[in-house]
């Protein structure tokens, strides 16, 4: 069945009226928005095969380095990079999944790409060896974008992702309001790894708003779980035994399913407020079951689209028009259609 204007609008993140204006070449739409709509129309097959007859000449090779593991959000981002890359005949997109928490492995992978690639996107650990590898790669003329978690003081073309400090503050505000401004209680944090600047920024934002607006709440522990659901389950189960009166949990990274399992098995799903990140099949199920109370989402489809566009423009010397992903809070009652 052929895609509709509504399908294209949903995929591009614009209104159906905007799609109609673009497809009929009417005025009143920004150039970058036109590119996004046309890209969505091509990927959905609306424009037919003629739109894909671009020559292989001039293809841009782009490489993305992502952490391997059980992080469902990263898996979704990987699929989006691959599927959107396949739909772009002007691009040759390759994705490398590596051990996510080993800076030497990441640095080595970046060094191996020197002379082999035209642009690189990376979810990078903030570590001296990684920063040096990024500097070396950039010095060879390869544009680099950071994805999801940023690194400062390195030559990069841009950062694709949300404001992680704002995300942490939002999580603290949600947790505090769920529990009540005057409520005294214990809360705990889980993080993938604070070697990711994004996780560190979320923690800082969370701690600041709790201290400023909800001083009756006490942060009793912060556990690093390496974005692994089994480790998340074990750490959460042990935490609940140490603090049977725990009132709230904020999960900075992945591992929501492991934490949710621990809460359910301990009979604490109803009594502990649980806020985390990324709408995946796991977190959606936890919302529907009432185990999670809120999910702060960033859109991997948008991040993949913007990363491909930013690197392609940087390689070809075109102006970059960045459309950042938006923070969205999702509750049980407003889970979006997939």
Please give a structural write-up:
The protein has 338 residues and is an alpha/beta fold. β1, α4 (72-86) and β2 form a beta-alpha-beta unit. It contains 12 helices and 11 strands. The chain has helices at 5-12, 16-23, 31-43, 72-86, 103-112, 128-139, 164-179, 197-213, 229-242, 256-265, 281-288, 300-316; strands at residues 60-67, 91-98, 119-122, 144-147, 158-160, 185-191, 217-224, 246-251, 273-277, 294-297, 328-330.
Sum up the structure in keywords:
338 residues; alpha/beta; five-stranded parallel sheet; 12 helices; 44% helix; globular
Q: Which helices and strands appear, and what pairs or packs with what?
A:
Layout: H1 5-12, H2 16-23, H3 31-43, E1 60-67, H4 72-86, E2 91-98, H5 103-112, E3 119-122, H6 128-139, E4 144-147, E5 158-160, H7 164-179, E6 185-191, H8 197-213, E7 217-224, H9 229-242, E8 246-251, H10 256-265, E9 273-277, H11 281-288, E10 294-297, H12 300-316, E11 328-330
Parallel strand pairs: 1-2, 1-3, 3-4, 4-5, 6-7, 6-8, 8-9, 9-10
Antiparallel strand pairs: 10-11
Helix pairs in contact: 1-2, 1-3, 4-12, 5-6, 7-8, 9-10
Q: Globular, elongated, flat, extended or rod-shaped: what is the shape?
A: globular
How many individual β-strands? 11
Overall pLDDT level: 91
Secondary-structure-derived class: alpha/beta
Beta strand %? 15-25%
Q: How many DSSP helices? A: 12
Distance between the termini: 18 Å
Short description:
This protein is α/β, with parallel strands linked by helices and about 350 residues long. It contains twelve helices and eleven strands.
């Amino acid at each position: 069945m052929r895609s509709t204007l509504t399908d294209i609008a949903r995929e591009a993140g614009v209104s159906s009226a905007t799609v109609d204006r673009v497809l009929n070449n009417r005025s009143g739409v920004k150039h970058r928005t036109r590119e996004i709509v046309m890209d969505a129309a091509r990927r959905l097959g609306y424009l037919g095969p003629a739109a894909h007859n671009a020559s292989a000449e001039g293809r841009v090779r782009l490489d993305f380095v992502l952490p391997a593991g059980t992080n469902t959000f990263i898996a979704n981002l990987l699929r989006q990079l691959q599927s959107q890359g396949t739909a772009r005949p002007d691009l040759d997109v390759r994705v490398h999944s590596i051990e996510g928490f080993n800076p030497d492995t990441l640095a080595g992978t970046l060094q191996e790409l020197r002379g082999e690639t035209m642009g690189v996107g990376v979810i990078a650990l903030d570590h001296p060896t990684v920063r040096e590898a990024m500097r070396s790669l950039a010095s060879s003329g390869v544009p680099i974008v950071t994805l999801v978690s940023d690194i400062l003081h390195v030559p990069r073309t841009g950062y694709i992702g949300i404001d992680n400090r704002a995300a942490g503050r939002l999580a603290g505000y949600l947790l505090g309001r769920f529990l009540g401004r005057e409520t005294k209680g214990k809360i705990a944090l889980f993080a993938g790894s604070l070697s990711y600047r994004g996780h560190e920024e979320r923690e800082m934002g969370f701690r600041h708003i709790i201290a400023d607006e909800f001083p009756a709440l006490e942060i009793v522990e912060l556990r690093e779980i390496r974005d692994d659901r089994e480790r998340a389950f074990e750490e959460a189960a042990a935490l609940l035994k140490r603090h049977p009166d725990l009132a709230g949990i904020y999960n900075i990274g992945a591992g929501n399913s492991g934490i949710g399992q621990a809460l359910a098995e301990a009979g604490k799903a109803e009594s502990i407020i649980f806020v985390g990140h990324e709408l995946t099949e796991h977190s959606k199920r936890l919302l529907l079951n009432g185990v999670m109370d809120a999910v702060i989402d960033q859109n991997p489809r948008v991040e993949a689209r913007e990363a491909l566009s930013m690197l392609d423009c940087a390689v070809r010397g075109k102006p970059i028009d960045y459309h950042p992903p938006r923070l969205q809070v999702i509750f049980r009652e407003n889970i979006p259609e997939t």
